[in-house]
């Protein structure tokens, strides 16, 4: 029997683009490294409030940088991420409370669906590509950068960025992820219960206790020590701490698995 | 004859710990990748003012994170970087005007010394392992006399403004000129992305060829 897998906790919010990048990299490496990845849906608004921080996008030069950075990382990470047209409205006004409560309820009732539904919610806010097609392509960008748009079955959604605040929107995301209508509605009914609201609050507070001032944070438990790493750009350092090999954001074994 | 080296500009301030990390990584790779590294001493205080940003260390939880991050990156990057005891005093009160003017004067008069002296200044602020940079007393005196001339003050101002025009809200920034495009990358954690943009191989912050050269 080999050594025990190292526990990694990823605290994330679907409003956070860099959370999506961390999420995909860790999902790719969870079958390569000796790790156990635990997804922790959190509320970035709560972390900002608790830490006294502000969303970087509120500073004009940071907002400008974010757009460029995401454009480049899209290529490098092979994740179809794009800034929504009405970015300020989506991120700063509408928020993610219902979506993150839904994911919290899922984590309690159907944790095996948490990865797929999280991905589908990110896709709604941060992408124009359908998750199903992206998954079947091996979750790289290749097909979507080169294929022409067929007239009948558009790979790129013609409509603008999708909502995640309305119940119907969340149900649509859950169904696209493979849940049945009954399962999805069952979860939706629970999102305003004290149990779910408290769990989301506790997870967000746990992130704060680890020292979070934003998201994503990856917490690695290694040889009796706990390391909190902020951002999607500490993955190589994470590999170093785990004693694992870093093969970039698109590791070869990911492609080989398909 | 091979392809022309790609021009990289590193805008930095010795007050900035992450600038030291970027600096060392790019110095290591300048003899591995097909690049021409141009060091651009800048004033981080000027960039903060111009962009409306604030030093991250002013937010308690970020200050706490910075300390831990630097501790880990010290190992990973193999750079003897440590938070100074009197961090707030050093960084936020004393500032770096003289040091950056000194480096600006060097960039005009003795550019070949810029790398070593920059490193020496970082060592003084951010390490307990200061080494001598090999500059003669006369050279140092000569440079010191020049740091408050209009020429030097203006050059530092212009370099800082150039960083702002590239979109800087902090330091370090690495500006890569590749195939007619200009990319500005913030932080010491975009080096792998830089390699990707240059079409070069990323071998981590401590590339093997660096060891081979010694």
Automatic annotation (TrEMBL), chain A:
<dbReference type="GO" id="GO:0004364">
    <property type="term" value="F:glutathione transferase activity"/>
</dbReference>
<dbReference type="InterPro" id="IPR001853">
    <property type="entry name" value="DSBA-like_thioredoxin_dom"/>
</dbReference>
<feature type="domain" description="DSBA-like thioredoxin">
    <location>
        <begin position="8"/>
        <end position="129"/>
    </location>
</feature>
<dbReference type="Pfam" id="PF01323">
    <property type="entry name" value="DSBA"/>
</dbReference>
<dbReference type="InterPro" id="IPR044088">
    <property type="entry name" value="GSTK"/>
</dbReference>
<protein>
    <submittedName>
        <fullName>Glutathione S-transferase kappa 1</fullName>
    </submittedName>
</protein>
<dbReference type="GO" id="GO:0005739">
    <property type="term" value="C:mitochondrion"/>
</dbReference>
<dbReference type="InterPro" id="IPR036249">
    <property type="entry name" value="Thioredoxin-like_sf"/>
</dbReference>
<dbReference type="GO" id="GO:0005777">
    <property type="term" value="C:peroxisome"/>
</dbReference>
<dbReference type="GO" id="GO:0004602">
    <property type="term" value="F:glutathione peroxidase activity"/>
</dbReference>
<dbReference type="GO" id="GO:0030855">
    <property type="term" value="P:epithelial cell differentiation"/>
</dbReference>
<dbReference type="InterPro" id="IPR051924">
    <property type="entry name" value="GST_Kappa/NadH"/>
</dbReference>
<dbReference type="GO" id="GO:0006749">
    <property type="term" value="P:glutathione metabolic process"/>
</dbReference>
<feature type="domain" description="DSBA-like thioredoxin">
    <location>
        <begin position="161"/>
        <end position="242"/>
    </location>
</feature>
UniProtKB/TrEMBL annotation, chain B:
<dbReference type="InterPro" id="IPR051924">
    <property type="entry name" value="GST_Kappa/NadH"/>
</dbReference>
<dbReference type="GO" id="GO:0006749">
    <property type="term" value="P:glutathione metabolic process"/>
</dbReference>
<dbReference type="GO" id="GO:0004602">
    <property type="term" value="F:glutathione peroxidase activity"/>
</dbReference>
<dbReference type="InterPro" id="IPR014440">
    <property type="entry name" value="HCCAis_GSTk"/>
</dbReference>
<dbReference type="GO" id="GO:0005739">
    <property type="term" value="C:mitochondrion"/>
</dbReference>
<protein>
    <recommendedName>
        <fullName>Glutathione S-transferase kappa</fullName>
        <ecNumber>2.5.1.18</ecNumber>
    </recommendedName>
</protein>
<keyword id="KW-0808">Transferase</keyword>
<feature type="domain" description="DSBA-like thioredoxin">
    <location>
        <begin position="8"/>
        <end position="198"/>
    </location>
</feature>
<dbReference type="InterPro" id="IPR044088">
    <property type="entry name" value="GSTK"/>
</dbReference>
<dbReference type="Pfam" id="PF01323">
    <property type="entry name" value="DSBA"/>
</dbReference>
<dbReference type="GO" id="GO:0004364">
    <property type="term" value="F:glutathione transferase activity"/>
</dbReference>
<dbReference type="GO" id="GO:0005777">
    <property type="term" value="C:peroxisome"/>
</dbReference>
<dbReference type="InterPro" id="IPR036249">
    <property type="entry name" value="Thioredoxin-like_sf"/>
</dbReference>
<comment type="similarity">
    <text>Belongs to the GST superfamily. Kappa family.</text>
</comment>
<dbReference type="InterPro" id="IPR001853">
    <property type="entry name" value="DSBA-like_thioredoxin_dom"/>
</dbReference>
<feature type="active site" description="Nucleophile">
    <location>
        <position position="16"/>
    </location>
</feature>
